[in-house]
Amino acid sequence: MKDTPEILYIVVPCYNEEEVLGETSSRLKAKMSALISEGRISDKSRVLFVDDGSKDKTWEIISGLNSSDKLFAGVKLSRNKGHQNALLAGLMTAREKADVTISMDADLQDDIDAIDKFLDKYDEGCEIVYGVRSSRAKDTAFKRGTANMFYNFMRLLGVDIINNHADYRLISRRALEALSEYKEVNIFLRGLVKQLGFKSDIVYYERNERFAGQSKYPLKKMLSFAFDGITSFSVKPIRMVTVVGFLVFLFSLGFIIYAIVQGILGNSQAGWSSLFCSIWFLSGIQIMAIGIVGEYIGKIYTEVKARPKYIIEKYINTEDTE
Ligand code: UDP
Ligand code: MG
Questions:
Q1: Residue 248 is inside which H or E element, if any?
Q2: Which of helix, strand or coil describes residue 73?
Q3: Is the CB of 207 within 6 Å of ligand 1?
Q4: Architecture of the domain spanning 8-233+308-316
Q5: What is the pTM of this model?
Q6: Sheet holding 72-77, edge to edge
Q7: Lowest mean pLDDT among 40-44, 77-81, 257-261, 298-302
Q8: Residue extents of the structural domains in the chain
Q9: Which atom of ligand 1 is found nearest the CA of 214?
Q10: Where residue 184 falls among pLDDT bands split at 50, 70, 90?
Q11: How far is it, in rounded angstroms, from Cα 126 to Cα 197?
């Protein structure tokens, strides 16, 4: 245990979460109050909600919570920028105030009681603690299947990523400082945080069902998330194209021999089959190669532009007002 209790910020990205915020905030308040009275964390600790451009009453609820209790702080993004950017916005806001942060979802799927274990690991000197789901029994079969596919595919591509770890994790201020050095625009925090290094550990927890409301990750967002993860961390796809190109080249050699033999035997219209097949195969390969090269060029483009990852419209209770 440290002499003066550490300041803990719990960062919760919220997108249209009006149905769950009441329950989430009261459970987090109970947990935080207990930790504060045990002297484990400072009374300057906060629950920091990040409103990711919600269209419902999310921001009103956050401001309401703040007026009734200074434990609750908020940040509002100017528009919906997606879970990863919202989370990053929250973490970077917390970085200036907190000794340690824990990020979690708003929907109470992440077990709040795991926070104690996170802090134990932090006291043992871990800079990063990953929350890992002990089972996915409560997820839908579809979610489970696609998630497994995603993790396996990522590993196949050589991306260093922790299985069944979402974004429930503890990050110390030091690790956050390091994270802030990554200037890239395409944010895939699970991969980035893993790249930071530092002493880290895993805490297992039971993943619950969403407390209320619908998943804010429709298939489209999930796919773009997976795609971002892959293209931000692996250049293997471009190598695969080279391999495919080589295989097609070998195939076409065999095909030329076949075509010549058929020509000699007088079984084909001269030139037709070779021409037909080469056009189709080469066009396919070319299009694929152009597509993938284009993907990387697209990435270079956005990196070079270095757009702001988020724009904060308002602050409450973060002392950065105006
Ligand atoms: N979220 C967000 N912006 C988005 C989509 C989601 O901030 O564009 C938040 C959401 O409010 C929740 C977390 O990200 O706190 C995880 O989303 P969700 O629970 O819907 O995902 P799932 O658990 O279904 O994968
Ligand atoms: Mg969820």
A1: helix 236-264
A2: strand
A3: no
A4: Alpha-Beta Complex (3.90)
A5: 0.80
A6: 200-205, 128-133, 165-172, 100-103, 8-14, 46-51, 72-77, 312-316
A7: 298-302
A8: 8-233+308-316, 236-305
A9: 20
A10: confident
A11: 11
